[in-house]
Structure formats: structure tokens, C-alpha cells
## 1
Amino acid sequence: MLTVNHLTKSYDGEKMSLTDVSFSVRPGEVTVIIGPSGAGKTTILRSINQLIRDDDGEILFDDTDMRQLNRRQLRQARCRIGMIFQNYNLIEPLTAIENVLHGCLGTKSNLAGIFSMYRNREKEEALQLLQKVGLGEFAYQQCRNLSGGQKQRVGIARALMQRPKIILCDEPIASLDPKSTVTVMDILRDLAVNDGISVLINLHQVDIARKYADHVIGINNGQVVFDNRAKLLSDVAIANIYQKNVNTEGSLVHEF
Ligand SMILES: Nc1ncnc2c1ncn2[C@@H]1O[C@H](COP(=O)(O)OP(=O)(O)O)[C@@H](O)[C@H]1O
Ligand SMILES: [Mg+2]
């Protein structure tokens, strides 16, 4: 469904931020990327939808290399890739439902991106998605009045409005309290298990990865040092992922 092959990236042409990163993401699974700060997690997610251009490698999304698409094709492919951010990226003065409706902007001209011009069918769908994430009664509240956990759930509803095949989440719970963390992670897991969406999440909380992931990818210093089922994420593997300057020789676990 999504396969990353030999991804390589340097921002400055000297220091490597990603070196030969390869992994696959399966539909209906939660895949979590863990690793220390600066390991390259965000760079991987932003390369997938080509928000940044990687230097080398292949990103196969439904067997098409994202790197080879022209602008129009890339826009279409991005419509099938939902994004969830640590800081929500909502338009705070707008209501929850207006933010969710922005999720289908990719399929419209800019002019149509005004609330009154959305079709009733789209407004109904946006409301249903807010209900799905438990926020039906907050649909007409301005986002700036919502809690962090509620904002992130609006972010999820907005991503779902695109009818994504995959959702990429960059530290989605980093700003949330423990209770909101559980709510948001439960929703993301439900999207994988019940809706068959691939969910790829960058996290630094190992305990959350253990609880929610089917598949874990460990990144250290821009390299994949663990790629396996979550139940095989041992304490030794975690120590390896989080140690400084891992030498990947002999430490890469790559079996399914
Ligand atoms: N825009 C940028 N310009 C230059 N270097 C960057 C940029 N973004 C990230 N980096 C570098 O790339 C490496 C990986 O960063 P990042 O992907 O943000 O890691 P993570 O998300 O795991 O914390 C780090 O060394 C970071 O300093
Ligand atoms: Mg990051």
C-alpha cells in the first residue's frame, strides 16, 4: 500500500538526515515510527507526501512513485493522504465544521472554499465525521474555544473528509494530557481496525507505541534500526533505538 525504498535526504548537502530508509505500511494497521528527537521521523513523513523533496529513493503509494508525479497528479495523490499535526493546524477563528469542510478543499477550486458554497451533502458528511470523533455537539463552536484533545479530534475529522487511504500523524499526542491521549489514540486505532485505513504515526512515547502499534519502525540517526511487529519491541530493541549513534551492523531486525 505504501512502500518506502532506500530513502535518502540531506538538507544541507553535508549532514545526512535520512540514509537508506526502507519500510512498508500495511492497510488496516497502525504503524508507529519511534526514535529520539532529531532521528528523522518528521523528515520521513514529510517526504511521503512530498512536502519536502528527498534526494534519492522511492515512495510507492499504491504502486505509483510519489516522486515521479506531476503537480496535478501529486495534488490528487495528496487527497488520499490525510495529515495530523502536533499543533493541529486548524484555523482557530473558524468553527469545527468549517475546519472539517476544509478537508475537501483539495478537490475544489479556491473560490468554492467558502462555507456557503459547500453542498449540503458535504456539510452532512462533515457533521457525521465530527459525530464519529465524539464532537457532534461542538460542530458550530469556534476551534479556539476547544481543548487540545478536541482540536486534535477536529483535525482527524478534517483528514477523514478527504476519504484518505492513509493518515500520517506527526507527534499527534505530544501536546495532549493523558486522558486526551487515550481518546485520540483510540480513534486512530479504530480507523485502522474498522475502516481499513493505514495509520502511520510518529511518536516518542514508547509505552504508547507498545499499546497501540501493530508494527514499529525504530529510527536512529536517520537509519532504520528496528522494523518488526510491535510485540517484538523488547527492552533491548528500545535501548538500541534510543542509544546515541547506533551502528546498524548486526542490530537491524527486519523480519516478518
Ligand atoms: N528544515 C530543515 N533544515 C535543515 N535541517 C533540518 C530541517 N528539518 C530537520 N532537519 C535536520 O534533520 C534531522 C532530522 O530531523 P527531524 O526529521 O525533524 O527529526 P525528528 O522528527 O525525529 O525529531 C535533524 O538533524 C534536524 O536537525
Ligand atoms: Mg519530528
## 2
Amino acid sequence: MARLAGSAPVQPLDFQPPDGLVEAVNAALSLRRPLLLTGAPGSGKSTVALSVARELGLGEPLWWPVTSRSTLEDALFRYDALGRLYAKQLGERDELTRFLRLGPLGTALAPSKIPKVLLVDELDKSDVDLPGDLLNVLERGEFEIDVLKRHSEDTFDVRLDGGPDTCRISGGVVRCQEFPVIVATSNGDREFPPPFLRRCIRFTMPDPDPEFLGRIVDACLAGLDPATRAGVDELLTSFAERIRRRETLATDQLLNAVYLVTRDMPPEGEQRRRLEELLTRDLSTT
Ligand SMILES: Nc1ncnc2c1ncn2[C@@H]1O[C@H](COP(=O)(O)OP(=O)(O)OP(=O)(O)O)[C@@H](O)[C@H]1O
Ligand SMILES: [Mg+2]
């Protein structure tokens, strides 16, 4: 099963929503607004997109991992003009669509009967103008591909992000039929401007308490026998306590630790303690 991040032996379908998240997702869907998730590393932000896509039967989400070099244009489409030129010089048949592919944002806006889910991952890493520009494109629900506009009387089958599928584009304009479901995540590296925040539904992943961590462990590591499971409670409590003391810890660190101390031949005593310590080191220290 596809995974976006993390290394815990869990499946995204096991995702346990924290209180309030379902209401935020529903509000975002009804109002057709992006859901902006903030929260600690490993609090499950990216997994929310997978979970929503699965719950609603919308297929695999599109993934746009944002960096400081990300541009809106690249996320819409990439056109390799140089590649096309070389191919022409080599006497190859001139096929424009061989050198054109929609990016994750472009694919989310491509006409399709069912809405797509787009994960805009780590939007806080972007250049300062990108969030506002992104919302403008989403609100228009369409964009132009200049190289296709030059042949505006023609129809092209343009490749979508991440696979062999294509969509039919006429007049050089890509226009969405169904508004995509947008989940944007942020680790809070920088603030977003109020006009951007106003147009999103915001949700902050809460710090987990032992009861919530227990639910995640039960869902993700189903099949633990009751005696083994009981031995995990201490780990859950100390993990939640460390988060409360503002240590930076990710849920998948806990899942990894629980997994290793509950397998067939679990370590004991000092060895177990050392393993737990190794796997649940504070992420804010080197
Ligand atoms: N509530 C939850 N239910 C089930 N699994 C969870 C939950 N929260 C986190 N996890 C698991 O923890 C791992 C990390 O989650 P994820 O990558 O979504 O976190 P993140 O907030 O996006 O982290 P980062 O900020 O580092 O990108 C995943 O394997 C995910 O399945
Ligand atoms: Mg993430």
C-alpha cells in the first residue's frame, strides 16, 4: 500500500482522527476550501489526505511536496521545450504531448468525473507568494497551457502526474469539473498571511494523550495479545508525558518502539529500556 512518509509498520487506513478533525474535513468539503493542517512532526498531517481519499473512495491522492524551490507553474505543468527541439533535430516525429505533463496541481484541476485529492505537503517551506497564488488558481478552477493555446483549434491528450493516464484538453485550457479536495500541511516554519488563512479551514493536530495514543497503537498494531498490550501502557504514558513537557516526538516513533518491544522475541530489562530510548529520542536534539 502506498505510503507518503514515515516508517512505522502501519497502514493509512488505520488512521485515528483526533477530536474535531472530522468536522474540519467536512467543513472544508462543504465549503470547497483547502484544509490547512498544522502540528508537530509525525502527528499524522500528511496521512490525513490518504485517509480522506480512502474514506471517500477517491483513489490515491496526488502529492505535491513543497520546497523553497517549488513554483506554481511547475505544479501545474512541465513543458520540455528543449527536449522537443532536440527530438526534432534528430528527425523524430514532432509530438508535442510527449514533452508535456501536468504536475500534481494541474492534475488535480484536470477534468475528471470524480474529484481528486491533492496533498500540498509542507506548504510552509514555500516561497512567500506561493500560498496566495495557489489559492487564486484554485478559486479560478482553471489554467492555460500557453504552448497548447498556440494550437487552440486542436484537442490534445495530455499526460497526468505520476502515471500513464491522460486527459483531453481543448483550446489550451485545463478546467476542473469537480472541485478537488485540497489538504495542505505545515510544520509552522513560518506564518501565513491572514488573507490566505481566511480562505482555508484550519486545524491543529492536538498533542496526543495516553488514551489517544492507545487507540492509535490498537488500530495500527492490531492483534497484540492482551498481556503484551498491557505492558505497552507505561510506554504510552511516558511518551504522552514527554510530549506534554514540549519534547518533539512523533507518533511513528512510538509505533516503531511498540512494534519492536512486542514482537515474538521482545528484548527485556536494560536492553528493552535502551531500545525504547533509542527509538524515542527527542527530534529537536541531535
Ligand atoms: N492518528 C493517527 N492514527 C494512525 N496513525 C497515525 C496517527 N498519527 C500519526 N500516525 C502515523 O504516524 C506516521 C507519521 O504520520 P505523518 O507522516 O502523516 O505525520 P506528519 O504530521 O505529516 O509528519 P511530518 O510533519 O514529519 O511530515 C504515519 O505512519 C502515520 O500513519
Ligand atoms: Mg508530513
## 3
Amino acid sequence: MSATIKPFTDEFEEYGRDESRASGEASSISFPTTEDEVRAILEKLHAERVPVTVQGARTGLAAGAVPHGGHILNTSRMNRYLGLRRDEQGQFLLRVEPGVCSRSCASS
Ligand SMILES: Cc1cc2nc3c(=O)[nH]c(=O)nc-3n(C[C@H](O)[C@H](O)[C@H](O)COP(=O)(O)OP(=O)(O)OC[C@H]3O[C@@H](n4cnc5c(N)ncnc54)[C@H](O)[C@@H]3O)c2cc1C
């Protein structure tokens, strides 16, 4: 199941850094695909007082997605389009999950 909290082994090494090229350490990582999974992961980590670093596509340049211990919650697999609607001004509004990529992050 994708919501599993996994040990931060060598196979996840790339998730220790972002586009800033700074790198850090973590003890565990998860790739939730739904809000319920995010909630379950955070409840568990909160109870254990584990610090959490949230990651999107790791294209940030300020090292905000670089972990400093604790857990990495990576949202890149929350990539569904949830709905399209039009407001009173005729503008289209698209609802997406946080892992949906624009063209620039999809090609990185
Ligand atoms: C080639 C290139 C071009 C770029 N061009 C631009 C540009 O034109 N304009 C621009 O503004 N930026 C640009 N950037 C910077 C970067 O793409 C943006 O900052 C981008 O929005 C980061 O999104 P991300 O999902 O990769 O976030 P990440 O790098 O994964 O995270 C950035 C921060 O947001 C937090 N975070 C991520 N997801 C969540 C979430 N779901 N909930 C809460 N916190 C979260 C992280 O903890 C971290 O602190 C560029 C970067 C590159 C490499």
C-alpha cells in the first residue's frame, strides 16, 4: 500500500535532496495517494513526535523540501484531477491534488 511508512533506504536516496542541490537525512518516507492516507500517516507520526518534511516535485530552489531528520511525506503520487467548474465571471477553475505537475515539473 502506498501509504506505508517505509524506512529511508538507499533506493530513496534522491528524495534526500531537491533542486537546490542541498541534501539531508531522513529515517522514513511515504507516498500517500489520498487525503485519508495523509491523515493516517500524520496521525501516526504526530503521536510519535516525528518531524515531517512535505515534498512535492522537489523543484524548489530554497531547500524547503530537503529533510533534516524525521519523515518525508512525498505528495507526488497525489496526482488526480478532481473537477472543473466555471464561476460567475465565466472563468474555469480546476481542482487538483498537490502532486499534479505543470509541464515544467513533469519534464524535470
Ligand atoms: C528550471 C526551474 C525553473 C523554475 N521556474 C520557476 C518560475 O518560473 N517561477 C517560480 O515561482 N518558481 C520556479 N521554479 C521553482 C520551483 O519550480 C517552484 O518553487 C515550485 O513551485 C516548487 O514546487 P514543488 O512541488 O517542486 O515543491 P517542493 O520543492 O517539493 O517543495 C517546496 C516547498 O513547499 C513545501 N511543500 C511542497 N508540497 C507541499 C504540500 N502539498 N503541502 C505543504 N507544503 C508543501 C515543501 O515542504 C517545501 O518547503 C523553478 C525551478 C526550476 C528547477
## 4
Amino acid sequence: MPPEPHEIFAADCRACPRLAAFLEDVRTKHPEYHAAPVPSFGPLDARLLIVGLAPGMHGANATGRPFTGDYAGVLLYQTLHEHGFASAPESTRADDGLELVDCRITNAVKCLPPQNKPITEEIRTCNGFLAAEMTAMQPRVILALGKIAHDAILRAKGLPLSSLRFAHGAEHELDAQTRLIDSYHCSRYNTQTRRLTPTMFNELFARIRTHLG
Ligand code: SF4
């Protein structure tokens, strides 16, 4: 069953058959892993919402916390800490004591997809959770990490995907109170190839700080 309207998260959701079957397989191979839908992290009344793609196999899927435990979170948490959004610069485990400040992190798809590639139907099915979360939060700024996250945010707002074009550094008025800012995803590939550098990411967070005041 797809998410009920207004439901932000369901820990036992199995609405995507391919992902539910994949997670069962992962649980067999890695019984110590979370291997289930990964909840958002951070306070619901935060003014900044960061939307990524989906949990990584040995990161969020293992630890149960977004961008925690693998390379994808290295630049993100460093930068969050530098700009006062995180209590520590490193996110290693769900019980490491790190807290987010005025910031919440979620994913467009809450379950680990094979090869990190959710199919369109899965993005659509999980979008109800994101839509409900955005409605409950009413964030001032949403940072989209990558085009799939950008498109999921538009879908959650009921906007045509062609209405706002994704580009790194682009800013869009999502509605009267929410600004959408696009960034390349802070993946290992993008940071190691320097498609996304610490300077570029820092510049975006400096702008976010200016917007939040
Ligand atoms: S990806 Fe989302 S909708 Fe699909 S099974 Fe996981 S939590 Fe449910």
C-alpha cells in the first residue's frame, strides 16, 4: 500500500515490492544492518530541509540514519557543522550523539535501491511521505541534493517537473515562503571528481544562512 496522506514515515512500509525484496536479501547477508525504511533525521520544526536520493548500502541502510556511516555524508556533515547546523563534523553511527540544529535531512526514497537507482514508480510511491513531511514542516529553505531529489520536491508540491529546471546553485521560489536551492549530490563520485568541491558546497550553505537570517 502507498503511504496514507499526511503520513510522514512508516517504519514497516513495503509498498515497493522490488525494494522490499531487495531489503530482505540484504538483511540475510548483513543481519546487523538496519535494512529497512530510513527515517528522516532532525527536528520537524527545522527551517532547513535537505533532500537526498536514497539510503546507501553501507551508510544509511546500515546505520538507519541518513548520510551516516559512509562517504556520502563526509562533506555534508562537515559543512553542516561549519555553518552551525550540526553539533559535530562527523556522522558515523545513529547513536554517536550528533544533533542537527534547525535542519532536517531526508531522502526522496526511504529504502535502499539496487545500484542506488530507484525506478520512477518507487520515487512516485515514496513521494507521499515527502509531501506530508514538507507540509508538516513548512521549511523556509529546501536544499535538493541532485536532480532526482529536485524532481521529487516538485512532485511533492504538485508542480510539473518542467516548471523549475535543476542546475547546481539555482534558486527557485517553491511557494510564497519556501525557497528551493539545487546542489549536485555530495556523493563520493561527485566529490572525488571535484564536480562538487567543498568551496562550492560552502558557498551554498552561506547562502542558506543568509536566507534563514
Ligand atoms: S521506498 Fe518508500 S514507499 Fe517504497 S517501500 Fe520504502 S518507504 Fe515504502
